[in-house]
Amino acid sequence: MSKPTVWISRPFFPDIVDRLRPHFEVRAESEERAHSLEERAARLADADAAIVGLTERIDAAAIAAASRLRFVANLGVGYNNLDLAALTAAGIGASNTPDVLNETVADYAWALMLAAARRVGEAERWLRRGEWQGFRFEGWLGADVHGKTIGILGMGRIGQAIARRASGFRARVIYHNRSRLDARVEQECAATYVDKASLLATSDHLILVLPFNAQNRHAIGAAELAAMKPTATLVNIARGGIVDDAALARALADGVIGAAALDVFEGEPAVHPDLLNLENIVLSPHIASASRDTRRDMAALAVDNVLAAFGHGPHAGRPPTILNPGVLADASGPDFPNA
Ligand code: 8YV
Known about the structure:
Elements: E1 5-8, H1 14-17, E2 25-28, H2 37-44, E3 49-52, H3 60-64, E4 71-74, H4 84-89, E5 93-95, H5 102-117, H6 120-128, E6 149-153, H7 157-164, E7 172-176, H8 183-189, E8 191-193, H9 196-202, E9 205-208, H10 222-226, E10 233-236, H11 245-253, E11 259-262, H12 273-276, E12 281-283, H13 292-309, H14 326-330
Parallel strand pairs: 1-2, 1-3, 3-4, 4-5, 6-7, 6-9, 7-8, 9-10, 10-11, 11-12
Helix pairs in contact: 5-7
This protein binds 2-keto-D-gluconic acid.
């Protein structure tokens, strides 16, 4: 029997890709770019599995044109690029990359919060422009992070990793989430549950870590920004679209809040032009999980899921982070194990 085909939509670590070769015909893109709908359809047409990133939407239209597709591994913990209901209805398994990136993303949330609060980017730009002519005792006054109240909106595993880092800063953590955490987890994270209004009003620094869905679109807009402290810092490491970027630009320009840091943007890689003109914001190109070790772990986990879905490797038949395990029992692809 011929090997199944796996399409890899973005290049990654060749030694990790090589683990697929004994079992798959590997079609790996050599260039990192978004594919048009036609290109995506052409590549999925003869693929039994796909490893894709956030820029690749796998929706009902993509699935309809992919008659052999049995499994899709997403290179990311967030999977709003996948239509999970449509995949499940078609009997196609899907996985994401949870947990392996928690600590790296939490580190980065702190990096952004500290950079925005202490004006690191703004001060560096000023220095590089040659404007540092003398010392100003009252220059560059920022906001403290230690000892302050850090708010976390969306308290999954990344939110919890962010919260655990607060103890060294003697900071207080409050959070809001769809459902309240177990008392044991709250205690371990030293985090106090509050309603969204209190979170907005009380946080000195507010970090967004919630998944993107239709309900969360513009969860932070003009009204929410107005409810925050005028000195507050807002950090978005979750998904573009959770913040209304145009409203944020106005709020930063008008002093409604003190500063912000964004790693994700509505319509990225495009960035709202009004944000680019502001000094009191740190901007980065969606790199919160981008440490060498973590990106390798994410790639390896995606590969493990594909191998397992086709009956190979230590997890054979049980993809370790499958999102729709119900499909395993129904799967009837040529090499897809009936679990
Ligand atoms: C990735 C992410 O950079 O895991 C996620 O949800 O947003 C990031 O870790 C991105 O998904 C890369 O495809």
